[in-house]
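Q: Structure tokens for this one, please.
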Amino acid sequence: MLRQTLLRAAVRRANPLFFASPNTALLLGPPKNISLRRSPLLPHSIRAYRPLRRSPKVDSQDLRSEEEIQAMVDREKEHLAALFNMDPGRKKYRNLLLIFTILAVPVTICFQFPSRSLPPVPDPPELRHLSHTPLTPKMWLTSPLISLQLFSYRLRRGEYVETIRRNFTFSTLNYMGIDREGNPERWRWWTWFTYMFAHGSFLHLGGCYVAMSSFLHLMTPQFGVVHTLGLFTAGGVGAAAVTCILGSIRYGREIRDGTGTQIDIKRLIVANSYGEMVEKDVQLLRPMPGLEGAFATNVGSSGGLMAMLTVIAIAMPQTNWSPLFIPVGIPARTLLGGLVAWDVAGAVGLLPPMGIAHVGHLGGDIVGLLAYFFVF
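A: Here is the predicted structure, written as tokens:
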């Protein structure tokens, strides 16, 4: 191969990039100020040849075509890019991580209020006349400082918590068409997708972010952005569907006929129209023991992550993983098997309640298994 490359360089006076093998050329770059006839890299027979006067006859069968040479160089470039962690999919998976961060961080921040570290306070006197003013895009553009102050005070009072819960969480109770006060309610279908961007705490968000970064780094170059993003979305939606459907089958009868719930009067501290904290009696449904799962609000991206882990464990069994706070590498299939066993034990009630959606995790595993056999 080297002889053919040198002959081509001598006949066509090609770029000195082809003096060495493609690996050396890509690492060092094209040499400068080197003459074809005087380069010590060439044999004497080629060095003595003067291509401007007459070209020797070279058998065309001994030379590679332009397409073969270009394909060989492209393969070498891809190999070197993988060695130096400069794969083309790296930028794409970073863009996906950036989009996830932009969507998840603000929702998670709003989800944390009201907080003990930042207790609710009323609007200051100088802003009292704006207590009823909605924060429209026009107001953000014309008065950004005042809008930011109003937003911070309203955020500390938890005025956006109910909006976040209604649009970024799902529950079996809402799927059945009942709200927390026992009244009929329309099913919010879009929450099966938006709940993946809300997280219960920053530790929850950080763990999901680390797992997503690792999964995207493997899947994006292998399967592409569209398939990877589609798998994550389908895993999250499938986890929500399995949770709601199985929950309605398990708890639906007792909740609809009223034997599984009872009405409680709960006194809450809420903000009035002027931002002042007042007490208010609210009528709420309380589940009977054993039916708490129908009232649980579900958040987090773990359903989509479990679907991605399932595909990785099947397609890339040679990968090893070190979960958080565990310094030992675990094979992908062993890790997946352990997580599935843990979720099954939690779903059937063998583990104490820990606020983890075990059924949703199993739904993500099912979606990943189906996606691998029918899509990937």
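A few notes: The chain has a mean pLDDT of 77. The two ends are 37 Å apart (CA to CA).
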